[in-house]
Amino acid sequence: MASKRVAKSAVDWASFAQRVPPSQTEIFRAFKAKSESFVSRIHQFPEELPKIDWAMYKSKIAMPGIVDTFEKAYQSVSVPYPKDKANTKAKVDAEQKDAAAVSAKEIAKAREEIATAQAFVSKLQSLPPLEEFTQQMVADYFPEQARNPWEKPSIWPHTKYNQIGGTDSHEIK
């Protein structure tokens, strides 16, 4: 009876498990066990209300009409399916669409950053070996990072806090 209600689980646990990071596998297992316990509790009850043999009760109970009253009351019982009065499903669907749009933007931004990083890596791979590098090559390949003594003179060791006007965290003021 109960197996007719849910022919297949709505959750694809195999693909779900592939998406779970290794650091959260124990949490995932606990979540899956809890979900399966809920499903098993639902399946332990019959799909429909049990059939009652009203004729047997009419023959055993001497008071006339009481079994008919109970039968009518039992047949009129209907448990309504809960309704979404606060329209929560629509709100969740709207949030899901918004989250999908934000995710798409973040994915596009991440792909741009990946492309930039790959371009930088390809430039680094085209450089000569570090042993053959000179200061002139640094200035040619990385002009934004090279020292420029004509436009921005600096004092050895050429770090930011050792320069005039630089900020030194150990400086006494």
TrEMBL record:
Molecular functions (GO terms): proton transmembrane transporter activity
Pfam families associated with the record: Mt_ATP-synt_D
InterPro entries in alphabetical order: ATP_synth_F0_dsu_mt (IPR008689), ATP_synth_F0_dsu_sf_mt (IPR036228)
GO cellular component, one term: proton-transporting ATP synthase complex
GO BP annotation list: proton motive force-driven ATP synthesis
Organism domain of life: Eukaryota
Localization annotation: Mitochondrion inner membrane
Keyword Metal-binding among record annotations: no
Main subcellular localisation: mitochondrion
Record keywords, A-Z: CF(0), Hydrogen ion transport, Ion transport, Membrane, Mitochondrion, Mitochondrion inner membrane, Transport
Family membership noted in the UniProt record: Belongs to the ATPase d subunit family.
Function, in words: Mitochondrial membrane ATP synthase (F(1)F(0) ATP synthase or Complex V) produces ATP from ADP in the presence of a proton gradient across the membrane which is generated by electron transport complexes of the respiratory chain. F-type ATPases consist of two structural domains, F(1) - containing the extramembraneous catalytic core, and F(0) - containing the membrane proton channel, linked together by a central stalk and a peripheral stalk. During catalysis, ATP synthesis in the catalytic domain of F(1) is coupled via a rotary mechanism of the central stalk subunits to proton translocation.
PANTHER family in the record: ATP SYNTHASE SUBUNIT D, MITOCHONDRIAL
Protein's recorded name: ATP synthase subunit d, mitochondrial
